[in-house]
Amino acid sequence: MSAGVEGTPTLIPERFNAASFFVDRHVAEGRGERVAFHHEGGTLTYAGLQERANRAGNALQALGVEREQRVLCLLLDTPDFLAAFWGALKIGAIPVPLNTMLRAPDYLYFLNDSRATVLVVSEPLFAVVEPVLGEARFLRHVIVTGPAKGRAQSFEALLDKASARLDAARGRPRDDQRRQFLTQPRVDFRKKRVHVLEMPEHAADGDTRALGHLLRRRTRAALADQLEQRGHHRLAAPHRALGASVDRRSGHLCCTRSL
User: For residue 79, what are the contacts with CB-CB under 8 A and spacing of at least 6?
Assistant: First the structure.
């Protein structure tokens, strides 16, 4: 990961699409050949990330995914995760990254609770979630990295058929960005209890230290109040190397880290 400039403010428009800012902007400003992501197989540049995200967004639209519909991402830390995440955001859908260490009943809960119409899953994890797919009431399409498996379509095949050009959906109001992401709750099936946190795990380091104790025991309302007092609306991020917040008073987007 290449680090960005700490605390650099950037004036953002009233309507804001996160994929445009965090991916397309780097290509438009001449940083397309800079490395955006290091992975076991090599590296991925911003230009390469933009192309894969565009193809993923077009593939999701071809499957009927509409604005604000959920796309569950049960994906390992690979370029496929970034493509699905940013591609969903670019078309105005809501990506829901899932913990890869859970069990099949946990994934069924998230599938039904989010009403996701599409699941994108890494091939090594497909066997874990496959037994419960038939019980997912709203699921219409399953996409797996690698070759197709049964009802699951091949992610790579879908990307190959999709166009590499995609215009970003008109974003939500900048003061409403905190609702653009769905954070996954912590589920305690033994006590039949769901703990929901508004503040994402991948917050900026300063806020994580200051509010860390809240993450363990406060409710959604308490966390939202703490962020409101700081004058910020928190933007979630798909990776620990990226975080941002919107200052309501100035309208600036403050990047704490960048891909």
Answer: 37, 39, 41, 44, 48, 49, 52
| Residue 28, SS3 per DSSP | helix
Which residues, at least 6 apart from 60, have a Cβ–Cβ distance to it below 8 Å?
A: 71, 87, 88, 91, 93, 118
Strand partners for 165: none
CA nearest neighbour of 119 among 141, 146, 89, 86:
141
The first and second tokens of residue 166, run together, are 């995609």
E strands, 123-184, in order: 141-144, 153-154, 172-173
pTM here is: 0.68
The amino acid that residue 144 corresponds to is V
CATH 3.40.50.12780 in the chain is located at 14-170
Percentage helix, strand, coil for the chain under 3-state DSSP, each rounded to 5: 40, 25, 40
Tens-place pLDDT, residues 24-76? 999 999 999 999 999 888 999 999 999 999 999 999 999 999 999 999 999 99
CATH number of 14-170: 3.40.50.12780
Q: For the residues 130-159, what does the mean pLDDT come to?
A: 96
Q: Are 187 and 108 in contact (CB under 8 A)?
A: no
Residue 192 CB contacts under 8 Å (≥ 6 apart), including other chains: none
- Cα(229)–Cα(213) distance, rounded to whole angstroms? 17
